[in-house]
Please model this.
Amino acid sequence: MDNSILTEAYQLYYRSLYAYAYYLTGNRADAEDLVSDAFVRAILSWNETGSLRAWLFRVVKNMFIDLTRKRKRIAEVPEDYLLNLPAPDRLQTMEEDRLWLFEELRQMKSDDQELMILTLYSGLNDTEIALQLGITPENLRVRRHRIITRLKNRAADRRTEE
Model:
């Protein structure tokens, strides 16, 4: 792989890869290791066909699976992951909303969690996310629509309770 391509890829994809790895692992050190290792694998074995971004996300996921098998543990969405974005003037309300969303994500099935995290934070398109999840793009859109509808209904219920 050409160094200029790697440098550009690192600058473009590091943050979203790190966010995804952090979501998977639940800690910074493991997330940093996964992303670093993914770029090393890119240097060694990416054949420059297809999307490098999608390929890197697949490598991170596969390495996480390997790591999980070694450690035999289950990762959860880290609480500070969804709370690390600065909020504007509505800080209190937005923080409450983020906490609520975090709790809703935590209660979802792991497949739905991964679908939503990839949708919200990876920067991948539907086809790339579907490939990552091993489903069709149509199935991805249906599942995402159903998840968002459930979240909207729960959010409406939450507002009427307050």
User: Anything to note?
Assistant: Residues 73-77, 85-91 have pLDDT under 50 and may be disordered. The two ends are 55 Å apart (CA to CA).
